[in-house]
Amino acid sequence: MESVLALGGFVLLRDSVEWEGRSLLKALIKKSALCGEQVHILGCEVSEDEFREGFDSSINSRLIYHDLFRDPLNWSQTGEALPGGPLGALQAMCRRTHPGPVTIALDSLSWLLLHIPCTALCQALGALSRQHAHPGGGSPAEPVRVLGLFHEELHGPGPLGALSSLAQTEVTLSGTMGQASAHILSRRPRQRPAHQTQWFSILPDFSLDLQGGPPLESQPHADPHTAPVDPTAHVTFNLHLSKKEREAKDSLTLPFQFSSEKQQALLRAGPSQATSHIFYEPDAYDDLDQEDPDDDLDV
Amino acid sequence: MAAVATCGTGAGSTGSIAAAASKNNVTSFQRKGPRASGTDSGCSRLVSIAGTRPSVRNGQLLVSTGLPALDQLLGGGLAVGTVLLIEEDKYNIYSSLVFKYFLAEGIINGHTLLVASAKEDPADILQELPAPLLDDNCKKDFDEDVCNDKTPDSNIKMKIAWRYQLLPKMESGPVSSSRFGHYYDASKRMPQELIEASKWHGFFFPEKLSSTLNIESCSLTHGYRKLLQFIQNVIYEEGFDGSSPQKKQKNILRIGIQSLGSPLWGDDICCTENCDNSHSLTKFLYVLRGLLRTSLSACIITMPTHLIQNKAVIARVTNLSDTVVGLESFIGSERETNPLYKDYHGLIHIRQIPRLNNLIYDVSDVKDLAFKLKRKLFTIERLHLPPDLSDTVSRSSKQDLAESSKLLGPGCGMMAGGKKHLDF
């Protein structure tokens, strides 16, 4: 799980109805906050109080919450709502230049996808992840981490594919028997993507408890109904040779068998043959007596 | 095509004089000026440009794609004035490598580059180009690569078919006599001085957008329109279309566009199936092809076709491109553990080869091709499939093998189809 936070860039957290991801998101936020980073949260799906619930006051003081839940369409006109709507809020985050590593948590990309077009969201995410490469003051690369929560059941394969192709790390939540697991796919640039499955559980104070493996009472793998049939049984020809048969086969002289010198010469002088050689190897029935040409006629 | 046209209009007089001279061989009239006859024998009318050669089949001017193995499959190289479309593999590892080989080949040959991307800064892309293998070192390294590769196999020396020991699997090996294709070391970076000595133009789409991301500015044709204008400006200003005939040395413009059609360009064909501006990408390709045909340029485009939701768009895009090559890597798929594919990193599908000034295709008869990336060599080899066994013997393990060895095209029913072979 450390690799999720170690790599910068965009982390896509895919959850579903059975395995919810907000607690993992909060756990990762807590971890970043404890490392001393700045954490910005764009909250869309739950209220601020509900989101901050469970964090102690030291962490809560580090979180900078941008609330889109209370008044997303700015109906109250009090000026508290974020200007520009959801897209404006994202752009504001792009423009922010603070020194130091930053984590941005988007409480739900699904909510954002319902309100802004997918291409605009992808471009904004690209701009956010790229921010560390072009900081305002020219300081060396400060990692910007964008954690996005994505409810994959709400969307078709299109947005999911588009967002996965942008993500540096993709965490898919699943599990068995009440134990959650995270399948982490990390794509380092120009390297093979690495898969990892991590079993974990989240404690009430949103700290991560990593477990070694699946729970002990995992069900046994069901046997297939049909036993695999061996195709090499009941064949009319012999597929396996015994040792004696193999020796007999090896010692058989093949027709047109050349001596090894001739073979090597032919192999070596393949492409360019400056001079032509004549190789004569007498056959078993060849008669070397030049004087009588009819000697082999058996008359 | 394009070269002959520009030769005809721009340097026509020189060409005709030289042609007359070669025909008669007796004239004493020597025209002062750039000699039209280059190093290409028998093609004295074509202007010789560094890094190009005429095709042996129809005289079409070709450039190397940077991968000699791919050049051979495409009939000698990529024709000048055409588009090479690479369908990206799932994690965009090998397609970006092919993209970089193309650009590196341009730098080595001294061509001008135009790199367009919506994801990475073109300057960063150029920093990551692979280093070229120089002739004196590469033969030694290639031999050691081949030896390392061959040692498990060559223990079984063939007894009956021993003459085939010499036969290469596919044309592999640095052709040291020609300077057309070069080999690159994927583990090293191109030296900085070569990059700085080269001329390149970069188009980084997020910079060209206005600083505020309005929804209007994400309209589909906006990014493509800007890119087309940029390409057109470069072609016109640098004279690749013959517009400034007093240019002393003709050169090729190599255009590389990365991940066209991805949402970062503002195109939503990867996001939805019924998108509003589904013709934006096809219009772009059509206009781009028109630009390329009238200039001395070659273009490589990588496209994440596995993300495109509407399959009809893929078919249209294929028709609008000239050469289409699909890469399918085994990473993350069930084929990775398949023993059939253990030597290779992925499959390569040649989806389309153009017929340029020709009635027949130049396609090789080998359809099952796989590639592997060794450190210094990107080889494409013929994949030997196991024999197609009949349906009567039921076997679970062998059936998976035979089934997964079938090449899956984008339009075919995938594993959802029944497992039985149909016998008519």
TrEMBL record, chain A:
Top-level taxon of origin: Eukaryota
GO cellular component terms given for this protein: cytosol; elongator holoenzyme complex; nucleoplasm
Subcellular location: Cytoplasm; Nucleus
Biased composition (Acidic residues): 283-299
Coiled coil: none
Record-linked Pfam families: Elong_Iki1
Residue segments, region Disordered: 210-231, 265-299
Family matches, as InterPro entries: Elp5 (IPR019519)
Protein's pathway: tRNA modification; 5-methoxycarbonylmethyl-2-thiouridine-tRNA biosynthesis
Record key words, sorted: Cytoplasm, Nucleus, tRNA processing
BP GO annotations: positive regulation of cell migration; tRNA wobble uridine modification
GO molecular function: tRNA binding
Coarse class of the protein's main subcellular location: cytoplasm
Family, per entry: Belongs to the ELP5 family.
Protein name (Swiss-Prot/TrEMBL): Elongator complex protein 5
Organism of derivation: Ursus maritimus
Biological classification of the source: Eukaryota, Metazoa, Chordata, Craniata, Vertebrata
Encoding gene (name): ELP5
TrEMBL record, chain B:
Subcellular localization: Cytoplasm; Nucleus
Gene3D superfamilies assigned: P-loop containing nucleotide triphosphate hydrolases
Domain of life: Eukaryota
Main location: cytoplasm
Keywords of this entry: Cytoplasm, Nucleus, tRNA processing
Keyword Protease part of the UniProt annotation: no
Keyword rRNA-binding: no
GO biological process, one term: tRNA wobble uridine modification
Gene Ontology CC: cytoplasm; elongator holoenzyme complex; transcription elongation factor complex
Pathway terms, separated by semicolons: tRNA modification; 5-methoxycarbonylmethyl-2-thiouridine-tRNA biosynthesis
InterPro entries in alphabetical order: Elongator_complex_protein_4, P-loop_NTPase
Subunit structure, as described in the record: Component of the elongator complex which consists of ELP1, ELP2, ELP3, ELP4, ELP5 and ELP6.
Function noted in UniProt: Component of the elongator complex which is required for multiple tRNA modifications, including mcm5U (5-methoxycarbonylmethyl uridine), mcm5s2U (5-methoxycarbonylmethyl-2-thiouridine), and ncm5U (5-carbamoylmethyl uridine). The elongator complex catalyzes the formation of carboxymethyluridine in the wobble base at position 34 in tRNAs.
Family: Belongs to the ELP4 family.
Name of the featured protein: Elongator complex protein 4
Originating organism: Ursus maritimus
Organism lineage string: Eukaryota, Metazoa, Chordata, Craniata, Vertebrata
